[in-house]
Design a protein that fits this description.
homodimer, alpha/beta, 6-phosphogluconate dehydrogenase C-terminal fold, elongated
Amino acid sequence: MKSLDESVFAIVGLGLMGGSLALALRAGAACKEILAVERNDDVCARALARGVADQASADLALAAQADIVVLAAPVRTILAQLPEVGRQMRGGAIVIDLGSTKQEITRAMASLPASVQPIGGHPMCGKEVAGFDAADAQLFRGAVFVLTPLARTAPSTLECAEAIVRSIGAHPQVLDPARHDQIVATTSHLPFALAALLMTTADDLAHQDELVFALAASGFRDTSRLAASDTQMMSDVLLTNRRNVGNVLRDYGRRLNRLADAVEREDESTVNAILQRAAAKRRELFHA
Amino acid sequence: MKSLDESVFAIVGLGLMGGSLALALRAGAACKEILAVERNDDVCARALARGVADQASADLALAAQADIVVLAAPVRTILAQLPEVGRQMRGGAIVIDLGSTKQEITRAMASLPASVQPIGGHPMCGKEVAGFDAADAQLFRGAVFVLTPLARTAPSTLECAEAIVRSIGAHPQVLDPARHDQIVATTSHLPFALAALLMTTADDLAHQDELVFALAASGFRDTSRLAASDTQMMSDVLLTNRRNVGNVLRDYGRRLNRLADAVEREDESTVNAILQRAAAKRRELFHA
């Protein structure tokens, strides 16, 4: 097996995540060549002009030249691309993805030709701004990068994936896909849903009262930030993690109703217990 | 009536908001003297040492020396202080508060002696860190500062309050207390409740799975930020805006269930409609 710095990468999808990976690999001189598969001609041209990619085209056939193929599109696009990527890849090549849910992708990876080596991936970082122009070589620095090997994933493939993760400044965390999807439903998909529904709630009130957004301060701004995330990406995420997301949203709804009950009946001790527990945990995690 | 720069201020409660007001008034040389009424001896000593206050004591009797009394404690402490403040104040003096809900406070202000001039206030800014040490002379800069005059509030009192607001770099917005409380239930109290319940939801899962917070990235961090807010302040806020808060939380819970329904039945067009509306509005408001 080639060392990382002798390897040719094909990155499929040069948006925020794929573009940031290309920039990070290049910044660290971590690989030999970067081939970009990207539908948007302008992005291809800019990636070539900036030296971020050595070749760029809309054709998945570029994957045939790669030692390591990275799928960096929204989850359901990855699911659609996998069979063709598998047909194109050379024997022994590795395919890893950057998708935000892992069960459906690793299930689809299990059907790839036996000659290729698949492993799931999910870097725990992002921005609410999408696209190649928002890409950032520092995006992965310090982030946890989840790796979900399949039963068929060779130890050397996992080692290679861990080397990629470390080369961009992230920390590998091997995880079962089901466990990953359950955790991120709470830590990532729920915060996104809360931000989106906060925006629609406030927007509905703003249709009755023109001062609503004039009174929205930094708390509203930060709590609603994720609502600006790429909607195609997030729609794919929610729809490929349906059971976990449904369960978490309904559980959260019950918590909201219990808080509403306590507020309405002026049950100060219940309100305080909820608020104090939340504040203590938030301060422990982020102000330590 | 004295001009602002000839006026003596008494600020009751030298926490984040009262402390920031004292710093901002001082930075702008906007008044003659600042008297601090503060229960915490250490804070009094530091305020005097830093020259933020000219006198500082736990005794509300200091209010008797002031032309303008500012109540900067949590809402229910303000409600408890108002009768005594009214007894102490000299004739013609103004009392304004910085509390986050306005209906109960303006109702209590209506019972003050006829010789004093009350007006409600609420600066639309804050931090999730409480206390005098977090106070910041720039906190109000650029913020909307709601003023809620009573029927008995003289035009000259409103003018004086507007001058105070402008002297600290904020923008006055006159508003009816009921309308204020309805709007902030959505723009401020709802985001806080969402952040607090996000923390307790994740913490419950973390008791079953030790990797939960390892996978929490910047989205979780920002969406949960308000959970660290001062719990006494926020408990007072929710409990003095019970009907609006209860209605908003229940309405929001119904939106969550509708989104959960759409996700579970893989209703892509409903999911996309919600996500796209939220993203468009968020980008219009904050990325323009």
